[in-house]
From TrEMBL:
PANTHER family: CALPONIN-HOMOLOGY (CH) DOMAIN-CONTAINING PROTEIN, JITTERBUG, ISOFORM N. InterPro entries: CH_dom, CH_dom_sf, Filamin. Keywords: Repeat. Residues 1-68, 75-178 form the Calponin-homology (CH) domain. This is Calponin-homology (CH) domain-containing protein. The keyword ATP-binding does not apply. It comes from Necator americanus. Pfam families: CH. It comes from the Eukaryota. The lineage of its organism: Eukaryota, Metazoa, Ecdysozoa, Nematoda, Chromadorea. One of its GO terms (molecular function) is actin filament binding. Transmembrane segments: none annotated. GO terms for biological process: actin cytoskeleton organization.
Amino acid sequence: MERIIFVEKFQIYDEDPTEIQMLLNVQMALDALREDGVKTVNIGSHDVVEGNTKLILGLVWCLIQRYQIASRSKIPPKKLVMAWIQSVLPELKLTNFRTNWNDGRALSALLEYCQPGLCPEWKGLDVEQGYANCERALKLATQYLAIPPIISPAHLSSPHLDELSCITYLSYFIMRGACGYRATLHRVQQLLPDCAVDDFEMSWSDGYLLSLLVEAVGGPVSLIN
C-alpha cells in the first residue's frame, strides 16, 4: 500500500513513487524553497527527476549558500567565508579558494586553529608534498572534528580545484555549532571575559558587544559604559 508522509502542509510520496509522484515531490520541495526566499531560477521538477547534473549541482549550491553558509545574511557567501578564514589564519594571507589550498598548509593551519594540538607542525610542512599534506589534513578533520570528507586529496591538491567545492567544504567548519564556530566563540569569550557571549546571532544585534570587542582588540572605541 502506498504510504504518504505529511510534512506541515505538504504530502510526500516516499515508497515506490510513480514518475508523477516524483515530480510532485520535487515541485513541493521547490515551492517550499521559493516561499523561504531561495532563488531556484531555471530549474523545474522535470530537471531534477531526469537527473540534470548541472542544474541539480546549482540547486545544491543554492541550498548550501542559504542554509549552511550565510543564512539570511546579505553578505555574499564567498566573502563571508573568506573574511572568516583571513581573520583566523592571518599568517597565511589567503586570497582565494583554489591555489592557496593546494599544498595542504592552509587546511592544516585551520585544523590547528579549531583544535590546538591537532596539527601544530603545519608551518613546517613540505609544500612539495601537497597531496600527502591534504590527505592527512582531510583525515584529521574527519576523525577529530567531524568534518565530512566531501572533497578528495587529489581534488584539494590540484591547481584546478573547483572554488565552489572548496567553499562548500570549508562551510562545514563555520556552520553553527561546528568546530570553527566554537573556536571563534571561545576566542571572543576570552577577549570579553565579563560578558555573556553565547552565539553570533541575537547577542550582537544592539552593537554593544561589537563595540566592546573592537575596544578589546585595540580599536578606536572609547567611553563605553
